[in-house]
Amino acid sequence: MKPPGAARARRRKGATLKIQPGACVIVSLHEPKEKFWGALEEINAAGVFVRGIDLNSYEELLRLLARGEEGIYPATIFFPLRRVERLLLDESAGEVPSLIERFEERTGMRLADYLGLNAADTPRCGVEEKSNHR
Fold this sequence. Notes:
Elements: E1 9-12, E2 15-18, E3 24-29, E4 34-43, E5 47-54, H1 58-66, E6 75-80, E7 84-89, H2 99-107, H3 111-115, E8 129-131
Antiparallel strand pairs: 1-2, 2-8, 3-4, 3-7, 4-5, 5-6
């Protein structure tokens, strides 16, 4: 029997990771086809609000920030639900690190700081770990 909310949550080492406001996500879009990476600010029946960058700029962003330069700035964007193909939680897969882990390792800064978000509201970009222990 699957645990409640299994379709919306992943279990890892006694913790549940959920896609919720503050979570670090990848939004796959269509018409036109594009991907956006950042912190989920809101999700509702109309669509999703995300603060982040176009995923095509990710590697260049890491290079710039690692050199202490600027040039790619985060934006808060609304995507209507009709354009959203997929909403993925940014998480590691086995030995492959998540985008947020790569960002923090290569730049030496927290993603919440780069995005200008309140770190208290967005621990590790809001991927909140809740213990399953009762």
